[in-house]
Specification:
Number of domains: 3
Shape: elongated
Strand order of the largest sheet: 1-2
Strand content: 5-15%
DNA sequence: AATGCCTGCAACCGCCACAGG
DNA sequence: GCCTGTGGCGGTTGCAGGCAT
């Protein structure tokens, strides 16, 4: 019994690729494109299975692959994205140009996971393994489903970015009022992700898996003459026992989500600071350990 | 110098989703 | 709606090189 092999394995080479094989594959794809991976090996003169060719190309031979060690910024981004997306390596890789899902998966399993563990952070939940209460001592957090937690982190950052855009928009619309110094922010990173394929897939997943108990209308923000339509919010499941008061504002909703997700920080500040930084801290909820200095530790 | 252990990474495996017939 | 083929994804494995003893 058993599943039929993905391709005829008899007579096919396995294991590490030789330089000659690499050259054959690259030459063929450069001239003809990969077309059907199944038929490619025969056409390219390779004794490999199509799947193996595809893997070799996507993980190693593709011209746009960035080789070499990950920078600290890339590592931080991987951790933050992992907090949002979980083990969806392909989605994470999509946000790191030139990096492959396999590379990121290896980085996580060999470096980042261990570093998080070494500082007492659960690499799966991105939460401390235990929290301490002045009255009760160390207390285990109530379990929170990964999808809810990731969704909540997404939502927190998105709301904050949205609030910042609204604030900037209102300031731009009222030029007579003295403008407080606003930090110049690059295009908001998390809004970019939110509106990217990653955000889209994430919204789809949460929409499929979570029941709706609240939603807010599509909102718009106008910045520098550019109208940005905010995507509908992902749907959130909050049981009636957890949610007794209908949230009035996005801020209140955010607080509720954070409480529901087991967050302890106060994210409801009315001050609009650099939302990217704030969002990073929200994503990287380390219970007061917001610096990423551990990344420098080997 | 020899041996064993550890680590990092390339490659493989099995499952899933999707498109086309 | 079902079946089949294909591509893509995430988990796991195996090997080579580095390091410690």
């Amino acid at each position: 019994m058993g599943r039929a092999p993905c391709c005829e394995k008899t007579g096919l080479k396995r294991g590490p690729w030789t330089q000659e094989e690499d050259e054959l594959l690259v030459d063929y794809i450069n001239k003809n494109g990969h077309g059907s991976w199944r038929s490619l090996p025969k056409l390219a003169g390779l004794l490999r299975c199509g799947k193996s060719c595809r893997l070799r190309w996507t993980n190693y031979l593709r011209p746009d692959i960035k080789r070499g060690p990950f920078s600290p910024e890339e590592e931080k981004l991987v951790i933050q994205l992992h907090a949002i997306l979980g083990n969806r390596w392909a989605a994470i890789a999509a946000q790191l140009p030139g990096r492959t899902d396999n590379e990121i998966k290896n980085l996580w399993n060999t470096h980042l996971r261990k570093r998080l563990l070494s500082i007492g952070i659960d690499p799966q939940t991105h939460e401390p393994t235990s929290i301490s209460s002045p009255l009760m001592g160390p207390v285990k957090r109530p379990p929170v489903s990964p999808s809810t937690r990731h969704m909540a982190q997404w939502e927190s950052a998105r709301m904050e970015a949205e609030a910042r855009l609204s604030m900037e928009s209102s300031l731009l619309l009222a030029p007579s009022t003295p403008l407080p110094p606003i930090k110049k922010t690059n295009p908001d990173y998390f809004l970019q992700i939110w509106h990217s394929e990653v955000g889209s897939s994430f919204r789809n997943i949460t929409t499929k898996s979570e029941k709706l108990t609240y939603s807010s209308p599509v909102s718009q923000a106008s910045v520098s003459g550019m109208t940005i339509e905010m995507a509908p919010k992902p749907e959130v499941e909050l049981s009636s026992s957890n949610l007794e008061v209908e949230p009035e504002s996005d801020l209140e909703k955010m607080k509720i989500i954070n409480i529901y997700a087991g967050f302890t920080h106060s994210s409801g500040s009315s001050e609009v600071e650099d939302s990217s930084d704030t969002a990073l801290r929200l994503f990287f909820d380390f219970q007061g350990q917001n610096d990423m200095s551990f990344l420098e530790a080997s």
